[in-house]
User: Which sequence fits this backbone?
């Protein structure tokens, strides 16, 4: 009986101790839920997350965001444009004179035409040609020219005009012998003629509207010459070169020129002839290009 009471009391004490321990554990757990335990060293190292912003704070932008938006809205300042430096005086002179050079080059005009000349000629100081006891000196006779004209207009006043022409020179004379008993008269005649290929290079000046004057050298090659005494031809020893000044003038009318030209040869046309050719011609020039 006593053994049973002792066991009963022992079980009662164990039950009470268990209840006390259970109550102590419950109160300790409740205390832990109200006051959380301090964070461990690992948890203390982690940054505490920021508290969520309130509705008013979310509606109001921060100063940094406003500054960023303002900087993005404002355009970036433009870089200052490079200032053009003033050209040096030499560059200004080049810019001013360049148009003048272009204008001079553009004002150069070229024309091409055909020239026909007709007039008289002679062989100045020619020796007398003797036959049958008479001597005759050749005198003025026919001359003509035909050739091309190339005109280069430098400006409104001056032109350079080279020409290429073929010219005929001639000189003649005659002597009449009267015979009273005959129905006709005897005559002695001399004739000298020559062909020449010529290159005049003339400077032409427009002295007034519609009027021009020209002057320049004339070069030539004497291609053929012959002397006639009555019906007896003679072949002179021709000098191949010809040279002398040419001078003239005329009228210009819409692509046509009517002029007069004088040529004065200074070279003897044939050996031992003492003859120097000259010519005076009226010419007509028409430009087709």
Assistant:
């Amino acid at each position: 009986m006593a053994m049973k009471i002792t066991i009963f009391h022992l079980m009662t004490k164990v039950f009470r101790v268990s209840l006390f321990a259970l109550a102590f554990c419950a109160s300790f757990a409740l205390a832990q839920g109200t006051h959380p335990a301090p964070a461990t060293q690992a948890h203390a190292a982690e940054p505490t997350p920021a508290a969520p912003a309130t509705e008013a704070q979310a509606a109001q932008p921060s100063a940094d965001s406003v500054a960023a938006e303002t900087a993005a809205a404002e355009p970036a300042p433009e870089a200052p444009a490079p200032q053009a430096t003033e050209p040096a005086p030499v560059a200004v002179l080049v810019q001013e004179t360049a148009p003048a050079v272009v204008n001079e080059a553009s004002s150069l005009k070229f024309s091409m035409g055909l020239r026909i000349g007709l007039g008289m000629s002679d062989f100045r100081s020619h020796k007398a040609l003797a036959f049958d006891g008479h001597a005759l000196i050749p005198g003025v006779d026919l001359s003509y020219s035909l050739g091309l004209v190339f005109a280069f207009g430098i400006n409104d006043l001056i032109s350079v005009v080279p020409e290429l022409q073929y010219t005929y020179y001639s000189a003649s004379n005659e002597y009449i012998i009267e015979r009273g008993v005959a129905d006709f008269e005897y005559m002695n005649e001399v004739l000298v003629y020559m062909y020449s290929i010529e290159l005049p290079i003339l400077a032409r000046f427009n002295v007034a509207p519609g009027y021009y004057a020209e002057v320049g050298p004339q070069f030539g090659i004497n291609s053929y010459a012959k002397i006639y005494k009555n019906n007896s031809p003679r072949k002179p020893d021709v000098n191949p070169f010809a040279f002398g000044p040419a001078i003239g003038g005329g009228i210009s009318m819409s692509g046509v020129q009517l002029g007069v030209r004088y040529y004065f040869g200074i070279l003897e046309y044939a050996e031992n002839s003492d003859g120097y050719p000259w010519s005076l011609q009226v010419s007509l020039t028409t430009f087709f290009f």
User: Anything to note?
Assistant: Helices lie at 2-34, 41-45, 55-59, 63-73, 89-107. The mean pLDDT is 78. The longest helix spans residues 2-34.
